[in-house]
Amino acid sequence: MTEIKTYPPAPDFVKNAHIDAATYQSMYEASINDPEGFWSQQAERLTWDKAPTKIKNTTFSHPDVSIKWFEDGELNVAANCVDRHLATRPDQTAIIWESDDPSVSRHITYLELSEQVNKLANVYKSLGIGKGDRIVLYMPMIPEAAYAMLACARIGAVHSIVFAGFSPEALAARVGGCEASLIVTADEAPRGGRSTPLKTNVDKALAICGDVKTLVVERTGADVNMVEGRDHAYHTLMAHASTDCPAEPMNAEDPLFILYTSGSTGAPKGVLHSSGGYLLWAAMTHEIVFDYHEGDIFWCTADVGWVTGHSYIIYGPLANGATTLMFEGVPTWPDVGRFWAVCEKHKVNQFYTAPTAIRALMAHGKEPVEKHDLSSLKVLGTVGEPINPEAWNWYNETVGKGTRPIVDTWWQTETGGHLLTPIPGAIPTKPGSATLPFFGVQPVILDPATGEEVTTTEAEGVLCMKDSWPGQMRSVYGDHDRFVKTYFSDYKGYYFSGDGCRRDADGYYWITGRVDDVINVSGHRMGTAEVESALVAHPAVSEAAVVGFPHDIKGQGIYCYVTLMDGEEYTDELRKELRDWVRKEIGPIASPDHIQWAPGLPKTRSGKIMRRILRKIAENDYGALGDTSTLADPSVVEDLIDNRMNK
Ligand code: 6R9
């Protein structure tokens, strides 16, 4: 095995950093030994209408799981992200918008942000929306998406963002799932020189889930269908709206947003986040993990449709009064140097992206990076999936010139923000490791066979958390039992992350990937069950089993085994049709990479599909199939291998 190098923080960096090694140690200890004291002090990062006196009231005890932080506190998230900066920085840029078209960008100041948010909040009210109502956002990466989120927060409405790459079918399920009163969308979403017809997709979704009011931003000016009384033009209503809208005082535990995410079973679940604890977590991690300083330009390349966009494009940076960059395009258009051109153009200081993007750009070599002046960069971050050491090294050497700390941040939609991560001035990094816990985070590794904690420093097993942190999700929207069952039932008394993990001799954590039937395709989480149910919804398909397989760029690809109905013919045309079908049912992000015909699937005598075997076949790893003696018909496996090899 090649030796793993350790990269200590550079002395120059440590000098200016918020947190050094000794401070990390003492603060971490305080956060564990005296959570009440620690978090009541940290809560002062936010501006409260009523400061909390009850700090932590949480239990992971099955089945009475209950999570409350700052429960008697009152605040408004929009007031924290906008209003409180108006006295000190009205003319500072809050949002830099870089459009898909490289010649177009805009700067929006905190004062402008305030006016737009307040107007939109008044527009919501005029459409009959109030505290607690749900608003679905299905939007391009444009400043109006930020206004739409913050305007919800201002009046206490709960947003549920649906990534613009999802299909009308997936959108309809999410609109229906939270009984939304309004959908905010745009005519079209330009990306990479192409355009997604968002409003047309909304029309198709409403034909499935029933009519809901819409508010349509004009992004490209494309001609779209507007139904009188149902569809409203954003710019028309905004033109008459007042910039004066008081912020609704909210309890810290009132919901801020719902975000659907995939699990191992059933339909995606609506992860529910709070106002107080979530915002504190987003703000604090944004400042400390990226070592954000006053005046820095921060760029997170995610889409606001994912949790990373929520916490690190909008809520964290704006709560801190930062300048946040919002990018509408893709890393490879108009050329593979786009990320670096944007870093140079806007003098980006912290850059946060996904390993899949790094791998894709790495394939094009150094030249597109070296063409650009990247001297403004101070910290580089990654998120979404394990980063392989080759990609880490390339990021470090080619982008960071070997002098910028890399923060490999492990977290989940459920966690609200970073849980395992280097702190750049404090924690030496190792390529591929998310290193150590953030303040208040108590990771444990459990033996999956016994459910017992592995207490030795070196350990391997499933990653759980022993106690709550303020940014933790509070429930599954409308289904608290599902929350308890999904996260607190397999290992009682712990939060179960769904990830496998190893702890090395230095106590560093190395995520080994999901241990459930969730796959991670280009950093997007997907339940194999979702792809399976899309496939079996096709009239020709009788059965389907979906697994992940290693993919050079995407991390994991989607491998589908499909059994057809009697009398159906296994043809290449049908294969193509099924691929398009899945794209239509879920969205292009769920495009199958391989569809293998499987007249028979390996099943146990009780009828359970043995996915372990299917994963091995997908990986072309036939020597390690393990015990197949419990199969009802072991010959099925040979047929699948023959099929795989002749494909
Ligand atoms: C923020 C986000 C969560 C899953 C998580 C894990 C994987 C995320 C990672 C990572 C290794 C990292 N994951 N960050 N694996 N190293 N730094 O991605 O949320 O979309 O909910 O995905 O992503 O498997 O369980 P989400």
UniProtKB/TrEMBL annotation:
Q: Where is the AMP-binding enzyme C-terminal domain?
A: 530-608
Q: Which CDD domains match?
A: ACS
Keyword Magnesium on entry:
yes
Which is an annotated Pfam family here? Answer: AMP-binding_C
Q: How is it modified after translation?
A: Acetylated. Deacetylation by the SIR2-homolog deacetylase activates the enzyme.
The record ties this protein, via Gene3D superfamilies, to: 3.30.300.30, N-terminal domain of ligase-like (3.40.50.12780)
Q: Which GO terms of type biological process are on file?
A: acetyl-CoA biosynthetic process from acetate
The entry sums up its family as follows:
Belongs to the ATP-dependent AMP-binding enzyme family.
The protein in question is named: Acetyl-coenzyme A synthetase
Q: Which organism is it from?
A: Aquicoccus porphyridii
The opening ranks of the lineage are:
Bacteria, Pseudomonadati, Pseudomonadota, Alphaproteobacteria, Rhodobacterales
Gene name as annotated: acs
